[in-house]
Amino acid sequence: MVSVQRAPWFRREAGFRAAQFCAAILTTALVSSSVQAGPLTLAGRADLRCRSGAAQYPFQPMLPAAKRVLRDTGKLTIVALGSSATAGAGASEISHSYPALLESELKRRLPEAEVKVVNKGVGGQSAYDMLQRMDTEVLEEKPALVIWQTAVNDAVRDIGEEKLAKILRKGIRKLRDADVDTVLIDLPWLPREERYPKYDDYRAVLAKVAEEQGAAVFPRYGIMKSWARSKQFTAEELVGMDGLHMVDAGYRCLAVRIADGIAAELTGAKLGLAEAPGASN
Question: What's the predicted TM-score (pTM) here?
Fold first, then answer.
């Protein structure tokens, strides 16, 4: 077992046309933010509960490549690389997978941009399987950002922590060499994760590698746990009957929270993410 230094968030549960384009995006985001401060629609109230735990588990990625590409071209291509959680296992239909919802959320937040989120999720795959697909399936899409959801199957199968660390390092470096930003998604909170004795150890590996490689991490574990504790969701809305996969409400909130962080970084807008009423952590 490798010795890991847990990252702070893990320990706590731990050009004129370009200027015009960015100004338009920023103005739109600020207007959208002010609108949200007014009376909430039904959809707005539903999304508000997604922000339970936003202050405790913020997602504030640095995305220099995506920001530059968006500024220069007005386009943003994201590849969602992962296993079943990316493919949409547990969702009622593919349009309710998190990549599909993320594309819709980003198009709403960045109406001046041409946004595309490509779903490259394959159920059951390990981090190594995904690494093998990077050249042929990921980089060929010419993304500015890759959101890499991984390590769950590696933890469940206990492939070895050092092996996982090497794979993650190689993948992040491959993307960096191609001038692509990387966001790693933390492992999910599971109601019965005690079935996997080394689960937290694998989470720590992902956190350590991300920190040393300068990659952003979406704190899914802490966020999901805060949702469960907030009383804003029923247990059935977060994890399905199999005890592993998210379902529609959880995937929607996942997309909302990832979109919040990406849009804020790309526009520079402070979106004022309020906690859902009655939330507790």
Answer: 0.81
